[in-house]
Specification:
With about 280 residues, this protein is of the alpha+beta class. It is about 15% helix and about 40% strand. The strands form four sheets. The protein has a five-stranded mixed beta barrel with strand order 1-2-3-5-4. About 25% of the residues are buried.
Length: about 280
């Protein structure tokens, strides 16, 4: 039986105008010339990946996909469909859907075009779909990779929660960043550079914060950017609570007061009893 979403060893039975017809002894599939890496002869056995084409017909390719049912991998987002999900490219002619059911409820946290999702393929109604891996799935793929403290590593966001964000590195290692170590907003699939802070039982913890001097400049920009998008004002002052600061700016009260004080000292912003505003 030819298995969708997996590698299959099939025999070439004949060459057609479009490509090679392959069989497992019961069924036949087409290996299009554009998906063939070599010239083949009748009777030759080759290893191919099976996907479904736009007409939902089983089709073969010798080009290695970025993810399969058995192997997880990164897939680039090629289209965002509100109400449905996102389509990702797995290196086959037909893109696969990552359903909205496997994406955050808040669509602002959805990946954008060219972001990378870490997925494994699943079969739904005889079609391939992509499903992002969770923390335990990623940890189960653990490789013999170690990161040193303060090492900077490229990674992509794979989960967002109130406690922080989960990342998967290019080495397929799991890194958790607590919300206190974040700056700005993040979305699924977003590319980040994380600084490793510690390792514990095969999991890594990290920070996206920079050095204090650079952080203050970044925080000033975040505050001003928010105000410019909201009629040059914000419902926060130096007396605002930690909860309110995090609600509007996703930063700690300490960092907020440091950047806010600098903006006030430089006469860039001012405030009244209920809000702050940019000085005209």
């Amino acid at each position: 039986m030819i298995k969708l979403g997996e590698y299959n060893k099939l025999k070439i039975v004949r060459k057609s105008d479009l490509g090679y017809m392959l069989t497992d002894g019961d069924s036949e599939v087409l290996l299009h010339f554009s998906q063939s890496l070599n010239e083949h002869k009748d009777g030759e056995e080759i290893n191919v990946f099976i996907y479904s084409d736009k007409k939902e017909r089983l089709t073969a390719t010798e080009i290695k996909p970025t993810a399969t049912i058995e192997e997880a991998g990164f897939a680039k987002v090629v289209d965002v469909i509100p109400g449905a999900g996102v389509f990702v490219n797995i290196n086959t002619p037909k893109d696969v859907l990552v359903s909205k059911d496997n994406l955050p409820y808040d669509t602002e946290l959805w990946p954008q075009k060219d972001d990378l999702l870490f997925i494994r393929l699943k079969i739904k109604k005889d079609s391939l779909i992509g499903k992002p891996l969770n923390r335990f799935d990623i940890i189960s793929l653990r490789k013999n990779v170690m990161y040193a403290e303060q090492e900077q590593v490229n990674a992509h966001v794979c989960k967002i929660s109130d406690a922080g964000i989960s990342l998967v590195t290019n080495d397929m290692m799991y890194v958790f960043v607590p919300e206190t170590q974040l700056r700005g907003k993040h979305r699924l699939g977003m590319d980040v550079v994380v600084t490793i802070t510690k390792a514990l039982d095969g999991e890594f913890y990290g920070t996206l914060n920079q050095h204090k001097e650079l952080l203050m400049d970044t925080d000033r920009e975040l505050i001003l950017d928010y105000m410019k998008k909201h009629n040059d004002s914000m419902p926060l002052t130096a007396k605002s609570s930690s909860e309110d600061v995090f609600k509007y700016l996703k930063m700690s009260r300490k960092a907020f007061k440091r950047a806010y004080g600098g903006l006030y000292k430089d006469h860039i912003i001012d405030f009244d009893d209920t809000k702050s505003f940019i000085v005209k």
